[in-house]
Automatic annotation (TrEMBL):
<dbReference type="InterPro" id="IPR052552">
    <property type="entry name" value="YeaO-like"/>
</dbReference>
<dbReference type="Pfam" id="PF22752">
    <property type="entry name" value="DUF488-N3i"/>
</dbReference>
<protein>
    <submittedName>
        <fullName>DUF488 domain-containing protein</fullName>
    </submittedName>
</protein>
Length: 126
């Protein structure tokens, strides 16, 4: 049985063979990217921050420490969608894509950690 392998990168970086499943993890389509060129396999909007939370965080990126638990709570509320995503794609390499410039202190890091933890819990459950 394979395991989930998550990586993250900007949507503006060229697609690579090592990307595996390319998942757009932004609620809005990124500016300046043609849908035909993006090579997006899945766009699970329910796993992205809500519009309200996204706007709140983008207004003041220094709120990252407050953003993390808020976004985790939103993901908790989407547990069925998280489970469905992991059931369908959790046995392969998944590249989470975003238009955001900061890959370390943004929603992608939170989503990656959340999916990794949820995947580990699933693997540990008989």
């Amino acid at each position: 049985m394979g395991t989930l392998r998550l990586q993250k990168k900007r949507i503006y970086d060229p697609p690579a063979k090592t990307d595996g499943l390319r998942v757009l993890a932004d609620r809005l389509w990124p500016r300046g990217v043609a849908k035909a060129d993006a090579q997006i396999d899945v766009w699970p909007k329910s796993l992205t921050p809500s519009s309200e939370l996204r706007k709140w965080f983008h207004a003041d990126p220094t709120r990252y420490d407050q953003f993390v638990p808020k976004y985790q709570a939103e993901l908790d509320d989407q547990a069925a969608d998280v489970d469905a995503f992991l059931s369908q794609y959790g046995q392969q390499t998944v590249t989470l894509l975003t238009a955001a410039k900061d890959l370390q202190q943004g929603h992608l890091s939170v989503l990656q950690a959340y999916l990794e933890q949820a995947s580990a819990k699933r693997a540990a459950t008989p």
